[in-house]
Amino acid sequence: MMPHPYPQGAGWIEVIAGCMFSGKTEELLRRIRRAQIARQRVIVFKPTVDVRYAVDEVVTHGDARVACVPVAHAADIARLVGEADVIGIDEAQFFDGALTGICDKLADEGRRVVVAGLDQDYRGVPFEPMPELLAIAEYITKTLAVCTVCGAPASRTQRLVARETRVLLGATDTYEARCRRHWDPERFDAEQEDLPLAGGSR
C-alpha cells in the first residue's frame, strides 16, 4: 500500500520488481506522472546502455514515454539529481552496486526514490543490485506478466536465443514471460538464434 498522504520532509524508496513484460516501466511512469501533476520536482534516469526505443526517454512496450537523463554509472545520478523531490530510476539491474547506497542517501535527504528493474535474470538468479534495493525499500511492488504458453501468472523471463552473456538487450524476439511450469533457462528457440537483437525489460 502506498503512503497517503505523502509525509512532508520524509524520504523513502519504492521498488517495482518483476520479470520482463510485467509492466514495471508502465508503473514507474504512472507514479512519475502523478508526481508531475502534483507539481513536484521530478527527474528520471535510465542506463545509457538502454537505447532500444529512445536515447533520452524512458519508453514502455506500449509506447508510453517520459523524458529522462541517460547515465552510464550510478554515481552520475547523485551528481545530476539537483533539487528533485522525486527521482525515478528505470532498468536498475543494469546499474552497478553503488546504486543501493545512492538511493539510500537520496531517501535520507527527504526525497522519494522510485526504482524499477528485473528481480531475476534469465537463469532465475537474483539480478544485482535489485536484491539489495528490495531489502532497504519502504515500499515494494511485485509485478507479474502473463505466461505466453498457458496464460498463467508469469514471474520468470524466458530467453529465446542461445547467448551466455547475462546482459542481453531484447524484446519479444529475444524474451518471453513464463510461469514456473513453462520456464526453462536451458532451452532456446533454435529458429530465433540468429535474429538481430532489439530492446529490453519492461
What is this entry, summarized?
This protein is of the alpha/beta class and 202 residues long. It has a domain at 12-143: P-loop containing nucleotide triphosphate hydrolases (Rossmann fold). It contains four helices and twelve strands, in the order βαββββαβαβαβββββ.
Can you give a write-up of this model?
- This protein has a domain at 12-143: Rossmann fold (3-Layer(aba) Sandwich).
- The longest helix is centred in the first third of the chain and has 14 residues, at 24-37.
- β6 (86-89), α3 (98-108) and β7 form a beta-alpha-beta unit.
- With 202 residues, it is an alpha/beta fold.
- The chain contains four helices and twelve strands, in the order βαββββαβαβαβββββ.
- It is globular, with a radius of gyration of 17 Å.
- It has helices spanning 24-37, 74-80, 98-108, 130-136; strands at residues 12-18, 42-47, 57-59, 65-67, 69-71, 86-89, 112-118, 139-143, 145-146, 153-154, 156-159, 175-178.
Q: Examine the coordinates and then state which fold CATH places here, giving the name of the CATH topology of one domain.
A: Rossmann fold
Helix content: 10-25%
Instruction: Give the spatial strand order of the biggest sheet.
Output: 5-2-6-7-1-8
β-strand percent reads 15-25%
- Count of DSSP strands: 12
Counting DSSP H or I runs of 4 or more residues, the number of helices is: 4
